[in-house]
Description:
Blueprint: H1 22-44, H2 60-82, H3 94-116, H4 118-132, H5 139-164
Helix pairs in contact: 1-2, 3-4, 4-5
Amino acid sequence: MSQHDAGEEGITPSGVPPIRSSNSDFLAGVALFAMALYTLVSSIRMPFYGDAGVWGSPGLTPGLISVVLLLLSGLLMFRSRRISLSGFGITFGIERARGLLVFGLIVAYVGAIPAIGYPIATFVMLCIFQIAFATRRDLKFVLIWGFGLSAVLTAVLYYLFAELFYIPLPRGVFGV
Length: 176
């Protein structure tokens, strides 16, 4: 009989007690709040085009998303301080490893875009995500989902941003 079947309170189905991460939530909220505030200020400083005023600004969408992110990160910080701070046990499980991997890949992607260009950086990042988080890793699956889907998504995103929205994308040292 497992611990969960025994009826113990606070035990997850895997038999591991839940991790209380209010400090982590608070720090994540602060980081997101700072990024959203920076993005909001940057989007407000963008020029307006035409006679449409604020509706013609390229910063409209990032500004709206920043406002939503400011609200949500504020709620996260508020919620984290209302929770008991009694569980400081930190374990390095698969969830944290995946979270760190995702964060590292996003930082590497943002850093790689100016150096190698948008299409190459996007393709590589999507391939890594598809392969790293795949449920299967046989050759056929990796070729179809890892490389194939990444190539299709990269082409669609490039066409959408460069051709339909006329957003100049970084070309990098390869000129792509």
